[in-house]
Every structure is written in C-alpha cells, then in structure tokens.
Design brief:
The structure is a single chain. With 150 residues, this protein is of the alpha+beta class. The protein has a single domain, classed as Aspartate Aminotransferase, domain 1, CATH 3.90.1150. 24% of the residues lie in helices and 25% in strands. The protein is built from three helices and six strands, in the order H-E-E-E-E-E-E-H-H. The chain has a six-stranded antiparallel β-sheet with strand order 1-2-3-4-6-5. The radius of gyration is 17 Å and the shape is globular.
C-alpha cells in the first residue's frame, strides 16, 4: 500500500487512513488493492479509491442517485446501482453527509437491498431457474442478477 503514496503529499496517506476509519464505522471492511485503485469490500465492493497526484478520487456505490455538489461524476450501472465519484482533498470533506452516504454504500456492499426485497439474498448458483450455466458467477453491479424470475 505504501508505494501508492510514494512521491505524493504526506497528507494523502492521512486522508486515506481517516476515510478507511470512517468506512469501518459501519462494519468490517477488507481492502482489495488493484493496479490503479483500491477497492473497499464488505460482501462485495461498495467503494473504491484512486490515489492521484494531489487528491484521492473516491467512488461510492449507492442504490439510488443522490444529488450533491460534491460529486464530480455520477454513473448509472443498473436500475438500482449508481457510482458517485468525488475528490477527497482535506479532512473537512469527511463530514456528516459523507458519513451517512458511506454507511449507505456499506449496506449496498452487504447486499442488504437484496435481503429486504426477496426475504433473503440468494446467489445465482442456488437458483438454477435463473440464467444459464454460463452466467453462474458473473456478478453484476449492486448484487443484481440477469433474467431474475419474478
């Protein structure tokens, strides 16, 4: 993890640690470092971060579109799956609004929306009537499944 912050302002590592602490207020979080970013995982990835030259670019996965001036980009990945991206530049950005949105993203990462909607979350492997064998194991954003039987 240290190499991601090499040659960057020291404050960025402090912001990373503070953001991780904020996420862990909701529950256990595993880190999934990849080539260009760091994923934050509960049951599935619910947030990610890219270390930039002078800031941290953070993405939160939410089940709804949220209007806020902090977003630099919002992407729709599915009917109930939106990526909200913002720049984290100072500890002032770690405010109550972000704390609430991070907790909401954590619940998406725990796939609570599936549990509420279906009574319990079931994987595609447990329901062979949904999708083909080729689709087994292909996760879609926000825990949705293709060709869900209703």
């Amino acid at each position: 993890m240290g190499q991601r912050f090499a040659g960057r302002p020291r404050e960025l590592r402090g912001l990373f640690d503070a953001f991780l602490k904020l996420l862990r207020e909701s529950g256990p979080v595993r880190l999934h470092p990849a080539k260009t970013r760091i994923g934050f995982v509960a049951r599935m990835t619910f947030a990610n971060m890219t270390v930039m030259k002078d800031r941290l670019r953070v993405g939160l996965i939410l089940s709804r579109r949220v209007e806020s001036p902090r977003w630099v980009k919002v992407e729709r990945y599915g009917p109930r799956c939106f990526g909200h991206y913002f720049n984290l530049t100072s500890s002032d950005d770690l405010d109550d609004e972000l704390r609430g949105l991070a907790a909401e993203a954590y619940r998406v990462g725990m796939q609570e929306q599936l549990t509420r909607r279906r009574g319990r979350a079931r994987s595609i492997k447990q329901n062979p009537a949904v999708g083909s064998a080729a689709q087994v194991g292909k996760a879609l954003p926000c825990g949705s499944r293709r060709n869900r039987k209703r």
